[in-house]
Amino acid sequence: MAHSLSLRLLYLGLMCGKGLVFAQGSELFSQASDANKGPHLTGCRSSEQVTFRCWWSSGTFQNLSEPGALRIFYQTKALSSDWYECPDYTQTVKNECYFNKTFTRIWTSYCIQLRSVPQNTTYDEACFTVENIVYPDPPVGLNWTLLNVSRSGLHFDVLVRWTPPPSADVKTGWMSLVYQLQYRVKNNTYWEMQELESGTQQSIYGLHTDKEYEVRVRCKMSAFNNFGEFSDSVFLQVAQIPSKESTFPMALVLSFILIGVVILLIFIVISQQQRLMVIFLPPIPAPKIKGIDPELLKNGKLDQLDSLLSSHDMYKPDFYHEDPWVEFIQLDIDDPADKKNSDTQHLLGLSHSGSSHNLNLKNDDDSGRASCYDPEIPDPEDLASLLHNHSEQGEHQHSLVSRSSSANPDFQQESEVVETPIQTQPSWVNMDFYAQVSDFTPAGEVMLSPGQLNTSPEKKKKEEENEKKIQFQLVSDGAYTSETTARQFSADVPSSPGPEQEYQAFPTQGVEGNLWNGDYLVSVNDSQTPYLLLEPPPAPVLPPISDYTVAEPPSKSSFIAAYGLSAQPR
Amino acid sequence: MRQRISDVNMNNVTFIPGNRRRCILVDQITALQVCVVVLVCLKKAVIGSPVECPDQEIGGTSCTISAEKLLDRAVQHAELIYRFSEEAKLLFDELLDLFGGMNQYIPGGAVCAPKTVPVPLSKSEIQQISDRWLLHSVLILVQFWIEPLVNLQKSLENYKSAPIGLLSRNQWIASKLSSLEEGLLVLIRQILGEGGLVLGPPEDVSDNTLSVDAFETVRRDYSVIYCFRKDAHKIQTFLKLLKCRQVDRENCSLF
């Protein structure tokens, strides 16, 4: 049934309705332009719910504009169903019909017709009940009082009061009015609206001083929609209170004090600069050796350093008793190589002769500890003489360079071993006091090398080697090296099989060191094809042993392992 | 500009203009929930029950609620009832607008059923009648409208798209009318010192037969709301006049 009901309603709605022109409030009378219409009712209003008036216009029909041409008839159910003519046409106002209180019944519907009697035509009709056309008169007696001013003097609050319109009987309760207050900054176009107020006063908060405001009020019957006219506006303004004189010197005094404090602080900072620097920026402790002045180390002469360091407790000779790796390097004095032995003896003798210079070398097993921890720095003059005497071994005496050679590996090893203690002396000349970490083996062990003083050949080799290392890095970033790059590598290599190279880590077997040590690869390239770059070299290639040998377990070399290792970061 | 009750605070009723129809309906629902809850609580606070005099006989005059308080409560009831009826009527208007406008359904003037007891309708006449007459007129009106509103509620429930606000308001009005009737009876007893003029069951002026014609049904329902709204305003005005008279007879009797 509901569904059919809605459908019927829709259908009926589309039809022409039963034309009762009715609307309430403002919709009662059409407000379309009067110019194009004929005679019509322009409005009916009541101001106090006791009487009401109706107005009409003749519109475009000029011939009906004279008084009496159009007449008002009304019908109200309260009296009868007959149509009665307007009881009072207002004399002073044109086209107005006034219904006094005897003809006015509230809560009763009225129907008003605008007729032209001679022509017996009805031009317009309107039906309403009186309470629906009540537009109250505006409130009167608008005034305002200042509530307070903000402490900053920028804002203020006011209380606005008014009285109800005199025509509306609010006192007896005949009409209940609600009011609406509006205000704006003068000459502004936008009115601020307050909420409806049933009392006769309202506060406005947060107005700005030094601005002129305009306030107005209007009212309507409660629960109805018809606002009356606005009351006369009232203007209000509050002058901005100037800043008190007492605050001014206060601000001045405060600013002076602040400036004085700032100046004092600056003065303190400047005068105590050093101490403050120490407090706030403590110096980073430089690396120190206990008992040794770092300045002396930097600038002092060698003999002074000598005396210092020899007297230092740290470098007692028994320090190295527990050092295990030194035992790897054993000086085998029983070797039948006489030449070498003679050399060894000679060197050893020299070494003893150098004891006056506090050289503390031992000709026993511990002589192999030609390490960076060797505290003695030989006298440069003595060492130079040593160098001179052993010029035939000078190639590899300048540094801890190890050579690759195809000679007898054992012999080479021994010779290298033999030479290492000898080499330490001259090499000491060119060494810094501290050792350097040169490289990391793939196994993670650290390779140490003596730092180099300014000697050009070593420097050159260093650069060379760095270059090669860089080149190798290019290679090792990828899994494979192309043939061309390998050839490049091989081309870069000096043809001699024994390039002097500073430090390498060569396991006795295995490929690991070979792989990532570009020097090695470069060195063996001439004897191998490029494709063998990543392959283990043949065993007879002798890995020269440097002073700083890293002992690592030999591992089975395979291409895959090599490939994996080559990808390791260095 | 249409206005709604948003907050049922007796002393500070605020109106919020409803701008959009559809939004109004949703707002109505939520607002009504709040309103109903508040009103239910208010009913307890404001009206309570005028016959709930503790440990007293119902007809006894030893009830301690003063006539002024009872009148206050009655006036507040009437105000609220009127506002809710106004809103219900507007909701119905919107419902009808969806179907082509309310002009077709507005009772021309004669549809509002005449009351069994004629009530004066001009201010001068009203101010001439006695308090007794005023009270009785109000009571008659209230008693008259209880049943039509109940019937209207039943009819509205059959509507397919009746807004819930309309239904709930109507229901609320019906319930509050009953309580207002009780209060008026007590008032009459107190002020006039006589038993309430309880009318018999009101003559069934309205056509209660369920009309199959949808148009007539809608027209009848709308006329109920329309006419009731008018009478609710009348009730409110009468009670206010009566209240003023009770408080200050000399000033309130001017006409």
From TrEMBL, chain A:
Polar residues compositional bias, start-end: 399-423
BP term (GO), one: cytokine-mediated signaling pathway
Topological category with respect to the lipid bilayer: Single-pass type I membrane protein
Cell compartment(s), UniProt: Cell membrane; Secreted
Annotated Gene Ontology cellular component terms: cytosol; external side of plasma membrane; extracellular region; growth hormone receptor complex
Keywords from the named record: Cell membrane, Disulfide bond, Endocytosis, Glycoprotein, Membrane, Phosphoprotein, Receptor, Secreted, Signal, Transmembrane, Transmembrane helix
Similarity section: Belongs to the type I cytokine receptor family. Type 1 subfamily.
Ranges annotated as biased composition (Basic and acidic residues): 389-398
Membrane-spanning intervals of the chain: 248-270
Gene encoding the protein: ghra
Zinc-finger in keyword set: no
Low complexity bias (residue ranges): 346-361
Protein name per UniProt: Growth hormone receptor
Any matching Pfam family: EpoR_lig-bind
Record region (Disordered): 340-423
Taxonomic superkingdom: Eukaryota
Signal peptide: 1-23
All residue ranges annotated as the Fibronectin type-III domain in the record: 138-241
Nucleotide-binding recorded as keyword: no
Gene Ontology MF term list: cytokine binding; growth hormone receptor activity; peptide hormone binding
UniProtKB/TrEMBL annotation, chain B:
Highest rank taxon of the organism: Eukaryota
Pfam families: Hormone_1 (PF00103)
Annotated family: Belongs to the somatotropin/prolactin family.
Upper lineage: Eukaryota, Metazoa, Chordata, Craniata, Vertebrata
GO molecular function: hormone activity
Gene that this polypeptide is encoded by: smtlb
Keyword tags: Disulfide bond, Hormone, Secreted, Signal
PROSITE patterns the UniProt entry points to: SOMATOTROPIN_2
Gene Ontology biological process terms, A to Z: pigment granule aggregation in cell center; response to peptide hormone
Record-level GO cellular component terms: extracellular region
Protein name (Swiss-Prot/TrEMBL): Somatolactin beta isoform X1
Subcellular location field: Secreted
